[in-house]
Specification:
The complex is a heterodimer of chains A (284) and B (69).
Chain A lengths: L1 H19 L18 H6 L1 H4 L6 H8 L2 E5 L5 H11 L3 E5 L24 H12 L4 E5 L8 H5 L4 E4 L4 H14 L3 E7 L2 E7 L7 H4 L12 H4 L3 H20 L8 E6 L4 E6 L13
Parallel strand pairs in A: 1-2, 1-4, 2-3, 4-5
Antiparallel strand pairs in A: 5-6, 6-7, 7-8
Chain B lengths: L2 E5 L7 H11 L6 E5 L4 H12 L3 E5 L2 E5 L2
Parallel strand pairs in B: 1-2
Antiparallel strand pairs in B: 2-4, 3-4
Helix pairs in contact in B: 1-2
Classes of the chains: A alpha/beta (284), B alpha+beta (69).
């Protein structure tokens, strides 16, 4: 019990320390390229290094990558945890909200002592505990049309874990304009969606969904509810697709989205083609 | 064809195969890696993993000789 209390106290102190830091005004330069994996990291990453599909080159590609995670909530938690654990070199975490009691059932980056702390900072503290070798940059901000291009600048990949259609379309447009690969995702209730995007090469989110649903036509997470493990599945799939796109390992989910119904174990892969009239990714 | 040696006698599984696998990735096809292996689990796992990865493997005592595929 004492050790548990001590652990929670350390986390709260770490979160407070991080909160005191100002977010970096501009993204840090990418980590210098490594020629080989340092000894300590061999053990940290040993269970992925032994995979037949994996290689030192794949590990170094992750180390050299800068990934922006938009949202540190139900999807952003597993995404950031798995990417940090896997050894992505730099993780930017964007979230403007504070941790609330009602978040905790589905957002495993945040614990009860974090209530009231900014999510970006709370997330950064945990991710640094998980893997001190990852450069974590919290941004306490809301990604919108106006700031999206600046926020994604310097990123090798963006994972959209936001909970609003406005943010989703802003992220897609900015990634298409900058040519930055993107993994989209969404979850509600016990179902969700995942889509990988290589702008200019594969269909983008707007090719699949040209217009956002009319305001009020889709229930929000707060209205419709969501089960934590369902968000965990979708977020985990987003993290996996991000790793595939960054390393070239496995087959990325491109020109398609995966519609997942976890109530009935239904996984439906829906093919999508690029649209000539797509305002975001332009003529095919 | 190059020949390299690797001593993994101080390691335990799965680090024995991790080190061997990464060393093999640095070699060219046909190059030979001679691995000094600790007896026991590693001496079973390293040759098996190398063979499953498609390399030619020969074991003499605790020395595992792997020809990169």
């Amino acid at each position: 019990m004492n050790s548990r209390r001590s652990f929670l106290r350390d986390l709260a102190v770490a979160a407070r320390d991080v909160t005191a830091q100002q977010p970096a005004p501009v993204p840090a330069p990418p980590a210098p390229a490594r020629a080989s994996i340092p000894g300590d990291d061999l053990e940290r990453y040993s269970r992925q290094l032994v995979l037949p599909e994996w290689s030192e080159a794949a590990q170094l590609a992750l180390h050299g990558a800068s990934v922006l995670v938009v949202g540190a909530g139900a999807l952003g938690s597993p995404v950031a945890l798995y990417l940090a654990g896997a050894g992505v070199g730099r993780l930017g975490i964007v979230d403007s909200d504070d941790v609330e009691l009602s978040n905790l059932h589905r957002q495993p980056l945040h614990f009860t002592p974090d209530i009231g702390a900014p999510k970006a900072q709370s997330a950064a503290a945990k991710l640094r505990f998980l893997n001190p070798g990852v450069v974590v940059e919290p941004y306490q901000a809301r990604l919108q049309d106006a700031n999206a291009p600046a926020m994604i600048e310097g990123s090798d990949l963006v994972v959209d874990c936001s909970d609003s259609f406005a943010t989703r379309y802003a992220v897609n447009a900015a990634c298409c304009a900058a040519g930055v690969p993107l993994v989209e995702g969404g979850v509600i209730g016990m179902s969700g969606l995942v889509m990988g995007i290589r702008p200019g090469q594969s269909a983008c989110y707007r090719c699949a969904f040209p217009e956002p649903p009319p305001p009020g036509s889709v229930a929000s997470c707060a209205e419709a509810g969501v089960l934590g493990p369902a968000a965990g599945v979708i977020g985990s799939m987003q993290a996996l697709e991000a790793i595939k796109l960054l390393t070239g390992v496995g087959e990325p989910l491109l020109d398609a989205f995966l519609q997942v119904d976890l109530a009935t174990h239904g996984f439906l892969r829906v093919a999508v083609t690029r649209r000539d009239d797509c305002p975001d990714c332009g003529p095919a | 064809m190059a020949a390299r040696t690797l001593d993994i006698t101080g390691l335990t599984c799965p680090m024995t195969w991790v080190k061997t696998k990464l060393e093999l990735e640095r070699l060219m096809p046909g190059d030979v890696l001679t691995v000094a292996c600790p007896p026991g689990e590693a001496l079973e796992n390293v040759p098996r993993s190398a063979a499953e990865a498609g390399h030619d493997v020969a074991v003499e005592g605790t020395i595992v000789r792997i020809v990169r595929r």
